[in-house]
Amino acid sequence: MSKQFELLQPPSDGISKLRFHPTDDTKLLVSSWDQQVRLYDAQQNQLVASHHDHRAAVLDTVFGSNGAFSGGLDRRVLAWENYSHTREIGCHDGEISALEYVSSGNMLLSGSWDCTLRAWDSHAQGGAAQIAKLDVEERIYSMSARETLLAVALAGRKILIYDTRKLDAPIEVRESSLKFPTRCVKLMPSSLGFVCSSVEGRVSVEYLNGATKSNYAFKCHRQPAEDNIDLVYPVNAVAFHPVHHTFVTGGSDGAVSLWDPDNKKRLKHYQGYPTSISALDFNASGNMLAVASSYTYEEGEKDHPPDSIWIKPMTENEARPKAKKN
After folding, report:
1. 84: Cβ–Cβ under 8 A, 6 or more apart, which residues?
2. Predicted local distance difference test score (pLDDT) of residue 266
């Protein structure tokens, strides 16, 4: 099996998000605190394009139909058209923390610390772009869209589930079973539920109403310390394998774990990354995993390794769940 490798020309400040293209296995989009959005060819290990048009840290980026979108601390939603030029398609009253793109309606969804979820017509010019504005009462921390579903994780541990064809009200409102603030929410490829991670070294697997499976939660990304006390790390990132529907988690312990949600088992544990795992994503075929190793400041200002992005080749069977024993 080929070894993982480090991408050349990584961001110079905290990596906030990694996204592989939904159909092109090699395109990798990266947002970061150095105010830049970068597009890499992950297979060729090449920086293809970048833009520096945000005025502050970029917290999220997502592919669209003919380019990408980004948002962050400058409160503006930018479209990066054909990866050549940018235009502003709208703004929030607070920092933009999360973006998702729904291809069926060319709709961009943005979540903010201004406690609103907004929907934009990604092809519209000027002020006509905003098509919905929903007050969600709490700051939005994380979002995940899949087909016609959208999961929104809020401060206060609330999770909202929307049908993106009818955004006027959520189809489900629930409180996370985790007792500490949510770091990441990710819808399952089956759309039957979602996985949620918290700052307190736990992950929950939760199913939507009507599903026949039971919810559960488990501890992870912890290290034994003295006096039988565990060092507990935030679980910053979750990504599902597109073929086998197993998932990876990345923590501030600098490790990545691969989980089988049906058998409730850990399949692999990848250690040795230089610092906190801030973001993760599989490519469309599931044969590459992108890992962002980027200090997430849970221990405050201190010397830390430079930010890096690692591309880990995945063999066909590596992410496959184990057969259930009779």
Report:
1. 49
2. 96
User: Across-strand partners of 174?
Assistant: 159
d(C-alpha 305, C-alpha 290), whole Å: 18
Give residue 304's pLDDT. Answer: 82
pLDDT at position 128 is 61
In three-state form (DSSP H/G/I as H, E/B as E, the rest C), the secondary structure along 80-133 is: EECCCEEEEEEECCCCEEEEEEEHHHCEEEEEECCCEEEEEECCCCHHHHEEEE
Output the CA torsion sign for 121, 127, 132, 134: positive
**Low pLDDT (below 50) residues in the chain:** 1
Segment holding 231, helix H or strand E: strand 230-232
